[in-house]
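This part of the workshop introduces the protein records we will be handling. A record pairs a protein's sequence with a compact description of its fold. As an example, a complete record with its sequence and its structure tokens follows.

_____
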Amino acid sequence: MDSKKIKYIDDLIDNLKVISYTDKEIESNTTFLKLKEGYYQLNNNETIRRESVIRRVGAIDAVAMFAITSDKKILLVIQPRVALPTKTKVDIELPAGYIEENEDILTASARELKEETGYVAKRQIKIDSYYPSLGYSGEKIHIVLALDCRKKYDQSLDKDEFVSFIEVDIKEFKYLLDNGYILDATARLAYYRTLEYLTNNSMLNMIGE
């Protein structure tokens, strides 16, 4: 990018950066999430009021696995998502979960994959990270490519967790993505980033492309 345009962008960022703030928790009886509100002073001398959502326990970040089995299938999970504005409130997604406090990304991805599907990956590669909802949350989702996955355990779910899992080939994955079965942004982003990674590393044969 042109250096003058970079300077222009940096100046815009500097103008809008938060230089001080005060925030507090909004009282609620929720057990998983809590709501905070605060006033944020910007470098341009303006003040904005904003609300945010954070987890009550543990780290806020999460991990999602694009898991490819030893026979070139992709692992997907099916579970209820009550915030989803559809008739069923059920989505098909990648295996995923929150990172525990003081847990590294690849340890978390291996644990969540094992818990939700019983599969274990021979190799894991972090390929991307992103913030899905910066309007109200600082949650960061890390995308991990899990390769040569093999079934070794039974599912190990929490008492109130109801998750089924399936294996699909790449053509079936594309069908689910294009026909409203897979609705979340993480699976879509992970799909394209995985294709990019496999293409750049001459590994497309791992998913039969």
Observations:
- The first helix runs from residue 3 to 16.
- The chain has a mean pLDDT of 94.
- The first strand starts at residue 18 and ends at 26.
- The chain has two domains: 3-55, 62-207.
